[in-house]
Design a protein that fits this description.
Elements lengths: L1 H6 L1 H27 L2 H19 L4 E4 L7 E4 L5 E2 L7 H13 L4 H32 L2 H31 L10
Antiparallel strand pairs: 1-2, 2-3
Helix pairs in contact: 2-4, 3-5, 4-5, 4-6, 5-6
Length: 181
Amino acid sequence: MKATLKSNAFVRFIITAGMLYLLLFFVHQFVIKKYTYYDQKFISTIIVSAETVLNFIGYKTFTVLQDRDMQVIGIDGSNGVWVGGPCNAISLFILFSIFVIAYPGNQKAKWWFIPTGIAAIHILNIVRVTVLAIIANHFPPAVLNFNHTYTFTFLVYLFIFGLWLLWVNKFANTKSNNTHE
């Protein structure tokens, strides 16, 4: 078994990524979400950022910011967009980070690539919420639901996959001596 792990990079990647994901998932679900308001405060920053963008491009907005579960941003005259825990992208930050950590590569590069990737995903998420608020203002709910469920899910995961491919092809440098965790 040890020989298989050392010789097969794919198996090592899958096992490392799986173990890291389980660890971080449990920490997030049973510690951070259960004992802190971190998720809700993070959602508030997304809503405030999206509101800033919407106001900058000329929309009058409304928000509902609370400590638990109900946070809304909208354009005056619309129903707005509810932003909940699954929408805050923390699970996507974790997924992206795990892919980079589990893949062999230069450790120094990981220290700057992971925060840069997380910042890029966060900005994309703010753009996503902003565009969904615009869609909610101009189109029926079915269009909002379709774009939320399919269009943006596809685009966000495609973006994360693209970041990971960028890491693998440009920054991982698997030929150096400093290649694995």
